[in-house]
Structures are given as structure tokens and as C-alpha cells.
Write a structure and sequence with these properties.
mainly alpha, single chain, 2 helices
């Protein structure tokens, strides 16, 4: 597994660490899960936009 270095404000990191503690997860695990959730949400949003654009194109063709 690759390692990365990220920079974030101390107060935000404290919130991340507090949430990790509450969720009983490591900081890395919490951040991985957050990024996966974000990526799924963006993917669904892009799919919805593509479907909307396809519907617009179909209405123009008809």
C-alpha cells in the first residue's frame, strides 16, 4: 500500500482524530473511507448530469 503526505490545519486534524477515536478507526482508515464516499457521490452526480444531458439532447432531436 502506498503512503502519502498531506497537509491540513491543526484544528481540522484534531477533529479528524476525534472522529477516528469515536468511530474506533485509525486516522488512515477514516480518511480512506471519507475519500471513497466522496468519490462515489461524485460518480453518481456525474452520472446524473450525463443522464440529464442525454435527455436534453434527445428532446432536441425529437
Amino acid at each position: 500500500m502506498a503512503k502519502i503526505l498531506i497537509t491540513m490545519p491543526d484544528d481540522f486534524l484534531n477533529k479528524v482524530d476525534g472522529l477516528a477515536l469515536t468511530e474506533q478507526k485509525s486516522r488512515s482508515e477514516l480518511i480512506r473511507e471519507a475519500l471513497k464516499t466522496y468519490m462515489r457521490r461524485i460518480s453518481k452526480s456525474q452520472e446524473a448530469n450525463a443522464n440529464k444531458n442525454a435527455a436534453i439532447l434527445e428532446s432536441l432531436i425529437d
